Amino acid sequence: MKLFQTFICCTLPLTVSFMNPSTATAGKANRLIREQSPYLLQHAHNPVDWFPWGDEAFAKAKMEGKLIFLSIGYSTCHWFHVMENESFENDEVAALLQQDYIAIKVDREERPDIDQFYMQVAMELNGSGGWPLTIVMTPDKTPVFAGTYFAKERRFNRPGLMDLLPQIVEVWQKDPDGLRKSGKAVLSNLQQRHAGSAQSATLSISQLEQAENILRQNFDRQLGGFGEAPKFPSPHNLSFLLQRYYRTGDFALLGMVEKTLQAMRSGGIYDQIGFGFHRYSTDAEWLVPHFEKMLYDQAGLARVYLEAFQITGKDKYKTTSQEIFAYVLGQMQDPAGGFYSAEDADSNGVEGEFYVWQKQELIDVLGAKRGEQFAQIFNTLPTGNFSAHIPGEPPGTNILHRKKSLAAWAETLNLPLAKLQHQLEEDRFRLFEFRKQRIHPFRDDKVITAWNGQMISALALGARSLGDPKLLEEAEQATRFILSQMLTEEGQLLRRWRNGNAAINAFASDYAYMARGLLDLYQSSLKPRYLQQALNLAEQLAVHFTDQQGQLVETAADSELPLRISELYDGALPSAGSITIEIYARLYLLTGDKLWSKQAESLLSASAAQINRYPAGYTQFLLGASLLLEPTRELVIVGSNGSPDTNALLVDVQQKFMPDTTLLLRPTGDSELLDKLVPFVSQMATVGDQATAYLCQNFACQRPQTKPEELENLLKQKTEK
Predict the structure, then answer these.
(1) Tell me, what's the pLDDT at 27?
(2) Residue 212 has pLDDT above 60, yes or no
(3) How far apart are CA 21 and CA 587, in angstroms?
(4) Which helix (H) or strand (E) holds 393?
């Protein structure tokens, strides 16, 4: 009997309300009360007898001959709270689970390995997946059912848990061997597909061109972004197009990025009062967001806005990146230096309530004249501005967004642009202070290594592209936190830190994103120890997270899951493999060590067959691969770190968008560590006691330069094969 079924999660109307799980205290605590994950703690007072993932749960299931009910989620998503309220807070559902199952809760952000594996199970069985992810499996972790959201009772032609749980148990009791056989077949199919995806193939520039053309075809020329609703920011797609513009000079590619960046910044997906981006837009217009805020979205989007500023010099992109950093540093940073994971979509039991406005509120806070002006600019209506998108939404609710540029509004209002900007910033701050009085969304305050690595990368890029030493200090502080609090004495990373407790062996994504953060931090600070630390993490990636086919897998060899499989696709978050190919390529270009070119080529070959089927699904991987497929160059500056002549050579280099160029500084008088890491620079010296630049391609260098203007002229020339 085939029991597998799935449902796609979607966004409910903002009027759906329920008890806030972060404040739930009724009921006897279950085992989750001893956990650190905020998501697990939200379920610690459910009547369901939850276990955390671990030996205790599986041993009990085996001893009692019970199936395992596995629920995978995360703390800040609206639908997880709905399912808890409807199902896991219900005594009847709890009784069924207690009678026939061992119930396990997993935080997908703590355990991406479990989530990734069982999500692939769901995709294999149903062709789609989503969260909450619901799995039923045998005590040996063999899946026999996969689904997503389930209410207590049947609804909208979807079965409820009160229907499903007894049905699955009945099959288990009548034909356990048949159910096991069905599950084993799924695992066998996954294994064969994984092996097949690693068939040796080649990747070339043509795949970059194909991805570019697919994005062109899917581009929404009227509203920006790609495809239809829902629309995700997908910053790696935008970075890919910026790099293709840099390589080809095709202004249409730049136009696609600029249209999207401007539409998102003006839309409801952006928090116009407190800054930062919401998760995604439920409509095509970027108006009605899913209101959670994720650290990784802030990092990826800050990065692409910075890249757009580097290319265009337009202050609006610079300002947006600065606003994102202001939000993260003000709201998402632990006093110890690490960055929190996310903020919830809900507050006071309602999705988005914290962020929406009545027009009268604006007038009450800002006064009649300024309130009317603010309401006009941000499309705030007495009747509300998004009820057409959310049927049944009460009138009068508004999501702040702009449809015209501030320059156009300045002309309409007959005000100097600078004066209008000053007024709006005053108004925004007053509304921000007023909004503090509302019930705040729940904040998931665990620190995830991978996502902190992303934010370190963004801050490091901000430091050098904006010339902002404060951002460099923040990046270095976060790095010290990770390497002091989340690195074992044996040099192995841990995944999660919360309340002084670091735990869970890190996964490939943690090593990859942190290694890239260290490389970006080296490019900004030019301190060789960061390059050394990046090398250390990359070595562990190569040794512990590469399978026999050469693919990068999320789990190390001691994984407790039935299979070690890879996920290369670049979804909301670029895959670990996509970041790793960039790391290997950059390390080869920086150090000249052929070990890294071999690692990169091996990963490239093992991944090519999968990428060739749909290149646009792997834009982050293609960004890294381009460093191997297209011309690159290395710039080595020899001089005293921090001296005026060295800085004169560095400033223009660090602020420009040059993804084909890696930068090394050989500090005079203190080059021992760099010479050890990068032997090919050891013979490079200053000319006439002046800081000197060597621009190299294929490790052959041009005539050394000491004058910034001459170096600038060289850098303007395109790299050649």
Answers:
(1) 64
(2) yes
(3) 45
(4) none
Q: What is the pLDDT of residues 505-516, one digit of tens each?
A: 999 999 999 999
Sign of the torsion formed by the C-alpha atoms of 313, 314, 319 and 325: negative
Q: CB of 607 within 8 A of CB of 581?
A: yes
C-alpha torsion sign, points 429, 435, 436, 437: positive
Contacts of 684 (CB under 8 A, 6+ apart): 636, 638, 666, 692, 694, 701, 704
SS3 of 357, please? strand
For residue 132, say if its preceding peptide bond is cis, omega within 30 degrees of 0: yes
Q: Calculate ∠ Cα 676-635-711, nearest 5°.
A: 145
Domains of the chain: 21-197 (3.40.30.10), 355-438 (no CATH), 633-716 (3.40.30)
**Whole-prediction pTM value?**
0.93
- Span 473-478, mean pLDDT? 98
Q: Let me know: does 582 contact 525? Beta carbons within 8 Å.
A: no
Q: Are strands 280-281 and 289-290 parallel, antiparallel or unpaired?
A: antiparallel
Going through 372-470 in order, the beta strands assigned E by DSSP cover 443-448
Q: Say if residue 581's pLDDT is above 80.
A: yes
User: pLDDT band at residue 6, thresholds of 50, 70 and 90?
Assistant: very low
pLDDT tens digits, one per residue of 125-153? 877 677 889 999 999 999 999 988 888 88
Instruction: Please choose, from the candidates 589, 664, 595, 668, the residue with its C-alpha nearest in 3D space to the C-alpha of residue 629.
Output: 589
| Measured CA distances, 244 to 212, 251, 252 (Å) | 8, 10, 10
For residue range 595-632, list pLDDT tens digits in order.
Answer: 999 999 999 999 999 999 999 999 999 999 999 999 99
**Cβ proximity of 623 and 579 under 8 Å:** no
User: What does the buried/exposed string (b/e) look like for 664-681 if buried means 16 or more CB atoms within 10 Å of the residue's CB?
Assistant: bbbbbeebeebeebbebb
